[in-house]
Amino acid sequence: MSYSPPDPPHEVPADIVSKLDDQPPEVLRQVARFAEELAEYHEREARLAENEESNQVEERPEDLPDDVPSKATITVKEINDNRYYYWQWREGEKIRSKYKGPVDSDN
Fold first, then answer.
1. Can you say how many angstroms the Cα of residue 79 is from the centroid of all Cα atoms in its chain?
2. Residues 85 and 76: beta-carbon distance below 8 Å
3. Where is region (Disordered) located (predicted)?
C-alpha cells in the first residue's frame, strides 16, 4: 500500500476528482459501490436496448422460469458482499428482475 494518494484516471473529470478527494473513506466506499451498480445498470440498459433492436427470437433456455420472458438476460448483483444471478428484462419503461441463484465462487 502506497502512502501517497493515487493518481485519478484521465477519463474522470477534475471536478469529480476534487469532490471525491474531500470525502471520508466510508463515503468513498459507498460511492464506489454506487458507481459499480450504476455501471452495471447502464450496461444492462444497453444490452436490453440492443436486444430490443435486433428483435431476434432465440431458443428459450431450459432453466428460464415460465414467468420470465425469453428476451430476459442474466445479470449479477452484489448484495452484502455476496453475488447473485438475476434474470432481467424490460416491460415498457420498467426493468423487471427475478432471482436465479448465487454466483458460484469457484468461477
1. 12
2. yes
3. 1-22, 44-73
Please tell me whether residue 55 adopts helix, strand or coil conformation. Answer: coil
pLDDT, tens only, 1-21 = 668 888 999 999 999 999 999
**Cell numbers representing residue 55 in the block:** 428483435
Question: How many angstroms separate the CA atoms of 102 and 77, rounded?
Answer: 10
52 versus 59: the higher-pLDDT residue is 52
User: Which amino acid appears at position 28 of this protein?
Assistant: L
DSSP character string of 5-33: PPPPPTTS-HHHHHHHHTS-HHHHHHHHH
Q: Which residue has the cell 422460469?
A: 65
Residue with cell 441463484: 101
Strands 82-91 and 94-102: antiparallel
